[in-house]
Design goal:
single chain; D-Maltodextrin-Binding Protein, domain 2; Alpha-Beta Plaits; five-stranded mixed beta sheet; elongated
C-alpha cells in the first residue's frame, strides 16, 4: 500500500486531490503540518508520493512551493486540477449572527475575499489548513467561531454549513502536483507535458530566444513563472510548463535549448500527463 503525504489532514483539499488522483489504488495518508514537512518526507522517501498545491485560479501561484521542489530536488510525476468550493461551517446550532471569528488557511481567505468583506466586524485568524480549522472547532466544541473549509470537512468533523460556495469566483480551481523522490525510478508510460526550470543570462533577448525556439518546434507553453534565485539578488529562474503532441519535437527542443549559449542550466522537473485531459 502506498503512503501519500499531503499538507493538512483528512477533509482538506489536498486529501480530496489525493483521493481523486489515486482513486483506484489503496493508500495511506501522511498528514503534514506544512509544505516543507511534506517536501522533506518525500525527499527522504518516508512516503511513496506527495500531493502539493502549486497554483490557484484566484490566488495565483504558490511561489514558495516551487522553491521547495528545487531545494529538495523533487520530481513531478503527475498533476490534477480540482474545483475548489468553500463553505462557512460552525459547531451545530450556530448562526452567522453568533460568529465572532473565522479561522482558515490564508489561501482560503484570499479565495473568499468578497464574502469576508461583507462581515468586517468578524475577526479573521489564519490557521494551518482548512480541515484543521474545522477539526479544532469540532474537537473543542467551540462556539462563536466558524471555519472556511470544504463540504467534506464539515461532514468529517460533524459541523453545520452556514453558507455554501462562498468563493469569490465560482469557477475556482487549484492545480496540484504529484511529486516523488527524484532518485526513485518512476516510468510514465505516456506523457505530453513537462515542467522545466531554466537559469539564463541576465542579458537582453536571452529569454525571448528560448521562447522562440520552443514555439518553432510547435510546442505550446502553458505557464511561465519567474522565481528569485536565493543569494543572487535580482536574478531569476524561470519555470516553464509546456504541452506537446509530438514527442520527437519535444526531444529535439530539449537538445537545441541546451546549445543556446545564454542558457546556464536547464532542469527537467517532470514529464507527465496533462491533468486537464483527465
Amino acid at each position: 500500500m502506498n503512503v501519500i503525504a499531503i499538507q493538512g489532514i483528512k477533509g482538506c483539499f489536498h486529501h480530496a486531490a489525493a483521493s481523486k488522483y489515486f482513486e483506484n489504488n489503496d493508500y495511506q495518508l501522511m498528514e503534514c503540518y506544512s509544505f516543507r514537512e511534506l517536501a522533506s518526507y518525500v525527499a527522504k522517501s518516508d512516503v511513496d508520493f506527495g500531493v502539493m498545491a502549486i497554483e490557484n485560479t484566484i490566488a495565483g501561484t504558490i511561489l514558495t512551493n516551487y522553491n521547495l521542489l528545487s531545494e529538495y530536488r523533487l520530481k513531478i510525476i503527475g498533476e490534477i486540477f480540482m474545483p475548489i468550493k468553500h463553505y462557512l461551517i460552525a459547531y451545530p446550532g450556530q448562526k452567522i449572527e453568533d460568529i465572532k471569528e473565522i479561522i482558515s488557511h490564508p489561501m482560503a481567505f484570499l479565495q473568499c475575499e468578497l464574502f469576508i468583506d461583507t462581515y468586517p466586524h468578524i475577526k479573521i485568524s489564519e490557521y494551518s489548513d482548512t480541515a484543521s480549522a474545522a477539526e479544532y472547532i469540532s474537537k473543542n466544541k467551540k462556539k462563536k467561531i466558524a471555519a472556511i473549509a470544504s463540504k467534506e470537512a464539515s461532514n468529517e468533523y460533524g459541523l453545520e454549513i452556514l453558507y455554501d460556495n462562498i468563493q469569490t469566483i465560482n469557477n475556482n480551481f487549484t492545480r496540484f502536483f504529484i511529486i516523488k523522490n527524484k532518485h526513485h525510478i518512476y516510468n510514465n508510460n505516456y506523457f505530453n507535458k513537462a515542467s522545466l526550470r531554466l537559469n539564463i543570462s541576465h542579458t537582453t533577448g536571452s529569454l525571448s530566444k528560448i521562447l522562440s525556439l520552443i514555439s518553432n518546434f510547435k510546442i505550446n507553453m502553458t505557464k511561465i513563472q519567474s522565481i528569485p534565485i536565493v543569494h543572487s539578488p535580482w536574478e531569476y529562474s524561470f519555470y516553464i510548463d509546456i504541452i506537446f503532441n509530438n514527442i520527437n519535437n519535444y526531444e529535439k527542443m530539449k537538445k537545441n535549448i541546451k546549445k543556446i549559449s545564454l542558457l546556464h542550466h536547464m532542469l527537467i522537473m517532470g514529464e507527465y500527463k496533462n491533468g486537464m485531459s483527465n
